[in-house]
Amino acid sequence: MNTRLPLAWSSGALANPSFRWFYLGRTVSLFGSAMTPVALAFAVLAARHGQELLGYLLAAELLPNVLLVLLGGSLADRFRRDRLLVWAHVGQGCSQAAVAAVVLTGTNPYGLFPLAVLNGVLAAVTSPALRGIVPELVTPAHISQANALLNASKSAARIVGPATAGLLVATIGGGFGIAADAVTFFAAAACMAQVAIPSRPAGPVRSLVRSIKDGWQYFRRRRWIWSITGAWTVMNLIQMGAWQVLGPMIAQKSFGPAGWGLTLSVKAAGILAGSMVLLKIRFARPLRDGMAAAAGVGLPLVVLGCHLPLPVLTAAAGLAGIGSAITGVTWDTALQQGVPQDKLGQVLAFDEFGSYVGIPLGEILAVPLADRWGIYPVVTVGGVLFILVALSPLALRDVRRMTAQDIRSTMPG
């Protein structure tokens, strides 16, 4: 590790006014969005057949997100990302305002389904542009710092947002939390409107299908990209099944909901701490170090499955949070520095598609596997497999040996 980076409004990533506006808009939006899952969940659960309805709503939002993210990548490469983000945030604000209206007026909750689908579509359009715009706002030397700042905001929002939403649900109702999210989307759109990126040189006009094909060809020819994306396909499958589904079930029969909430809070605090550390340091070999840190995310699963005490679990969760921050920042930085702008959106879309496509399978298989072999053995084995899969890309020399300079040198031209 080397190179200390300054953090001040007059230097580093924040010296660029466009990045400052982007960062402000993204932070505001993240804090609003962090409130919605809690507020919406309690509002839906209060309705008739609420448990089934909530699951279907989550699926209705996730499915178009996964299916259309490749289209979102093509749009991010074809159009100016700053303008795309403005209109996407306006659309998300309108959608969340409609959700809030349904909840606050007590309208038939089935009216939330088309809005959930719309939210999934807008998220698919927005995500590649959000990740792809960073290299257009800061110099290559400050991309890592910019990603660390964004990751810190995300983790802080995950700490504060749910607690704020819970307070709103308990006092004035969850619909107001969703309405607040809508306001933050409009505020973020206003911030994004202040972002100005240089116009990219006009290239050949390609159809969306051709753009996806070109992005796939670029993606599959870079072993350092597809190997890590492939690893995350399996890792997210394990994580969502063993941690998100089976974790609360173990907590319910052992240390209780309060202990589980504490564990999640410590993990979020670890992500925040790791992001703050990354404002100051860089890693000599980001791919190797990032995937080694990702292996630490599997530690809480092993601890949970082995019946170890709650203090051990919370400590492991804190370390996992730090590892999550390191792997997230190093990976985004590597892609943003190593992929040309005209293909970055599409490559990021393939990365997101690969990372998330296995999640529904993990959620579906978790309980049947636990019924067959026992919940504790399944979680323990899941943790061990997570660690092994995280380390598997290191078998490739490209991943193990590449420095940040090597990554930048892979960019054509």
From TrEMBL:
<feature type="transmembrane region" description="Helical">
    <location>
        <begin position="182"/>
        <end position="203"/>
    </location>
</feature>
<feature type="transmembrane region" description="Helical">
    <location>
        <begin position="21"/>
        <end position="47"/>
    </location>
</feature>
<protein>
    <submittedName>
        <fullName>Major facilitator superfamily MFS_1</fullName>
    </submittedName>
</protein>
<keyword id="KW-1003">Cell membrane</keyword>
<keyword id="KW-0812">Transmembrane</keyword>
<dbReference type="InterPro" id="IPR036259">
    <property type="entry name" value="MFS_trans_sf"/>
</dbReference>
<feature type="transmembrane region" description="Helical">
    <location>
        <begin position="291"/>
        <end position="310"/>
    </location>
</feature>
<feature type="transmembrane region" description="Helical">
    <location>
        <begin position="53"/>
        <end position="72"/>
    </location>
</feature>
<dbReference type="GO" id="GO:0005886">
    <property type="term" value="C:plasma membrane"/>
</dbReference>
<keyword id="KW-0472">Membrane</keyword>
<keyword id="KW-1133">Transmembrane helix</keyword>
<dbReference type="InterPro" id="IPR010290">
    <property type="entry name" value="TM_effector"/>
</dbReference>
<feature type="transmembrane region" description="Helical">
    <location>
        <begin position="224"/>
        <end position="246"/>
    </location>
</feature>
<dbReference type="Pfam" id="PF05977">
    <property type="entry name" value="MFS_3"/>
</dbReference>
<feature type="transmembrane region" description="Helical">
    <location>
        <begin position="155"/>
        <end position="176"/>
    </location>
</feature>
<feature type="transmembrane region" description="Helical">
    <location>
        <begin position="258"/>
        <end position="279"/>
    </location>
</feature>
<keyword id="KW-0813">Transport</keyword>
<feature type="transmembrane region" description="Helical">
    <location>
        <begin position="375"/>
        <end position="396"/>
    </location>
</feature>
